[in-house]
């Protein structure tokens, strides 16, 4: 029995020893890749449904820039009527009786008008948009830099400058020498204007030709305007005399615009003033629309309506005190200037300007500069 027990014990020990060896062999095969196994456990291969991607943070959309707002006009457009105040004007004392003058050269002794081409090509850009008139005399001083700077700041297209007249003769050289170079550098046109009495039309033609063909500061003028008034202002404006004068001015001007400064076409002037005699020789009519106590827009509209039948119209408005002429005392208001410009533009005028530079003050310049009428 003891012997058998020893055999059983030995067999048991062998079996135990063999099991331990198998167990050690199995354990050793796993222990040889511990890092790989641990990594596999720590980072299992994800399935597509398990894949997580970083959600992008939405960027705020840029706020749209506010639309550019147009500057408000100085006064409403269309401009309502602007009735002058301070009217009626004080009556002037009666003056001496009027005696019509006698011309230096009788009409019968004048030469015939010269022939001009039936068609012509004239650039009118110099007369478009806004302008200002300067009345200077032989002994005047002219601060050209100041005038040009003020005109440029107001958005003007042209300056009109007096260069002579039948009584004073030609005196434009020194003023045009000073004005033309800075004006042209600033993009401003310069229109020379003259007061021909037509007492001796050929003498008046000489001054016009001096302005039209002359070189001043290396420059040339951009247009010429004869101020043709009536016998009450000392002008002999009979149609034959008009034709003698203007035909020669037109021929000398070539492609340069000739602008007739004329009386406002009132019913009386339409019957008596020679608009039709002037029309074949000029390119633009510039009526003097000085309104005093009248509504400026109504006069502007009426002037354009009548004269545009013959030629394009550039209106001349009021920026001076008319009291010395029997008109209203004081300068027109800014609203009156605005109304004049707006009514004229809407009626079809190609431009408008104010008379006169020496009297215009801040309100008149403000309205002229603010009104949107580029050349």
Short descriptors:
375 residues, alpha/beta, TIM Barrel, seven-stranded mixed β-sheet, two-stranded parallel sheet, globular, disordered N terminus
| Biggest sheet architecture | 7 strands, mixed
Beta-strand fraction estimate: 5-15%
Structural class designation: alpha/beta
Q: How many individual β-strands?
A: 9
Instruction: List the helices and strands in order.
Output: HHEHEEHEHEHEHHEHEHEH
Just give the CATH class of the domain at 129-370. Answer: Alpha Beta
Morphology call: globular
Distance between the termini: 140 Å
Task: Provide the low-confidence segments as ranges.
Answer: 1-53
Global mean pLDDT: 87
- Name of the CATH superfamily of the domain at 129-370: Glycosidases
Rg (CA only): 46 Å
């Amino acid at each position: 029995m003891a012997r058998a027990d020893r055999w059983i014990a030995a067999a048991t020990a062998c079996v135990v020893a063999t099991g331990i060896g198998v167990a050690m062999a199995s354990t050793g095969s796993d222990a040889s890749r511990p890092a790989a196994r641990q990594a596999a456990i720590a980072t299992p291969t994800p399935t597509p449904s398990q894949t997580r991607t970083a959600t992008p943070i939405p960027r705020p959309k840029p706020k749209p820039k506010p639309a550019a707002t147009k500057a408000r006009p100085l006064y409403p457009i269309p401009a309502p009527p602007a009735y002058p105040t301070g009217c009626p004007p004080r009556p002037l004392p009666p003056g001496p009786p009027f005696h019509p003058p006698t011309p230096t050269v009788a009409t019968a002794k004048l030469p015939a008008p010269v022939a001009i081409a039936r068609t012509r090509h004239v650039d009118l850009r110099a007369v478009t948009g806004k302008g200002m008139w300067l009345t200077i005399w032989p002994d005047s001083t002219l601060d050209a830099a100041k005038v040009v700077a003020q005109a440029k700041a107001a958005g003007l297209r042209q300056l009109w400058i007096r260069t002579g007249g039948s009584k004073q003769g030609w005196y434009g050289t020194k003023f045009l020498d000073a004005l033309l170079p800075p004006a042209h550098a600033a993009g401003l046109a310069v229109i020379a204007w003259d007061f021909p009495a037509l007492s001796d039309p050929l003498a008046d033609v000489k001054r016009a030709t001096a302005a039209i063909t002359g070189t001043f500061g290396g420059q040339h003028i951009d247009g010429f305007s004869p101020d043709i008034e009536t016998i009450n202002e000392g002008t002999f404006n009979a149609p034959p005399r008009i034709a003698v004068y203007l035909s020669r001015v037109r021929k000398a001007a070539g492609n340069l615009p000739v602008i007739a400064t004329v009386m406002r076409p009132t019913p009386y002037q339409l019957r008596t003033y020679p608009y039709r005699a002037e029309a074949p020789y000029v390119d633009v009519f510039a009526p003097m629309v000085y309104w005093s106590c009248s509504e400026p827009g109504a006069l502007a509209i009426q002037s354009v309506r009548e004269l545009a039948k013959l030629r394009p119209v550039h209106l001349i408005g009021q920026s001076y005190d008319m009291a010395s002429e029997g008109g209203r005392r004081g300068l027109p208001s800014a609203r009156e200037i605005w109304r004049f410009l707006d009514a004229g533009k809407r009626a079809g005028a190609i431009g408008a300007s104010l008379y006169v530079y020496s009297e215009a003050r801040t309100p008149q310049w403000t309205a002229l500069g603010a009104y949107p009428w580029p050349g």
